[in-house]
C-alpha cells in the first residue's frame, strides 16, 4: 500500500443532534465499536475453532462546552416537556424513557474532502457528571450516546460519506 500524507486526518469536527449543532466541544468526538464473541469449541480439537459475534455495540462520546438548556436536555435524556418552554428544567419523570436522537458529525476526510457521519438512532446511555461550577476550569457536559440499530435501514447503526 502506498503512503499518502493526505490520508492523515487532523482538525475539528461539528456535532449536531437532530439537526441542531451542539456548539463547542472539547477532547474531540469519539466513535467506539465493541463486540462480544462466542468461542466455538469442538471435542475433536484442543482449542477454539471459530469465533462468532454475539453482540455488536457502537457509541459516540464527546464533552460539550456550551451548557445550553437544549444540550442539558439532550445529554440527560430529559423530556422536552420538562422545560415548560420557560428556560427552566425539571429533572426526572414518573415514567422515564430513553429519548432517541439522530447524530450527525461533520469533519475532514482524505484529500481535502468532507466526511459526514450520520447515526439514525442514538440514546444518551451513560451517567452524566455535569461540572456546574469549577473555579479553575470551564464548565462542561460529557455525554455518551449508545447507537441503536435501525430496522428501516437494514439493521445498520448509520453510515459515513466522503464528499
Give a short synopsis of this structure:
This protein is mainly beta and 163 residues long.
Describe the overall structure.
It contains one helix and eight strands, in the order ββββαββββ. It is mostly beta strands.
Fold topology:
Layout: E1 14-17, E2 20-21, E3 25-41, E4 48-64, H1 69-75, E5 100-109, E6 113-124, E7 141-148, E8 158-162
Antiparallel strand pairs: 1-2, 1-5, 3-4, 4-7, 5-6, 6-7, 6-8
Give the SSE order as H and E letters: EEEEHEEEE
Biggest pleated sheet: 8 strands, antiparallel
- The count of DSSP E runs of length 2 or more, i.e. the number of strands, is 8
What is the CATH topology assignment?
Answer: Elongation Factor Tu (Ef-tu), domain 3
Oligomerization state of this entry?
single chain
Note the gap between the termini: 23 Å
Total of helices: 1
Report the portion of residues in β strands: over 45%
Principal-axes shape call = globular
The CATH class is Mainly Beta
Mean pLDDT score? 91
Kindly state the percentage of residues in helix: under 10%
Low-confidence segments, given as residue ranges, are none
CATH-defined architecture: Beta Barrel
Number of domains: 1
Rg (C-alpha, Å): 20 Å
Q: Give the structural class.
A: mainly beta
Features:
163 residues, mainly beta, Elongation Factor Tu (Ef-tu), domain 3, eight-stranded antiparallel β-sheet, 8 strands, 46% strand, globular
Amino acid at each position: 500500500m502506498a503512503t499518502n500524507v493526505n490520508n492523515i486526518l487532523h482538525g475539528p469536527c461539528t456535532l449536531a443532534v437532530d439537526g441542531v449543532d451542539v456548539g463547542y466541544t472539547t477532547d474531540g468526538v469519539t466513535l467506539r465499536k465493541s463486540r462480544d464473541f462466542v468461542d466455538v469449541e469442538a471435542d475433536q480439537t484442543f482449542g477454539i475453532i471459530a469465533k462468532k459475534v454475539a453482540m455488536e455495540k457502537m457509541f459516540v462520546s464527546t464533552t460539550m462546552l456550551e451548557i445550553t438548556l437544549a444540550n442539558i436536555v439532550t445529554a440527560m435524556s430529559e423530556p422536552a416537556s420538562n422545560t415548560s418552554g420557560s428556560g427552566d428544567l425539571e429533572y426526572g419523570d414518573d415514567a422515564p424513557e430513553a429519548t432517541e436522537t439522530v447524530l450527525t458529525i461533520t469533519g475532514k476526510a482524505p484529500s481535502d474532502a468532507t466526511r459526514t457521519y450520520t447515526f439514525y438512532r442514538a440514546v444518551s446511555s451513560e451517567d452524566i457528571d455535569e461540572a456546574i461550577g469549577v473555579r479553575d476550569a470551564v464548565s462542561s457536559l460529557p455525554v455518551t450516546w449508545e447507537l441503536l440499530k435501525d430496522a428501516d435501514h437494514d439493521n445498520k447503526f448509520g453510515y459515513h460519506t466522503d464528499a
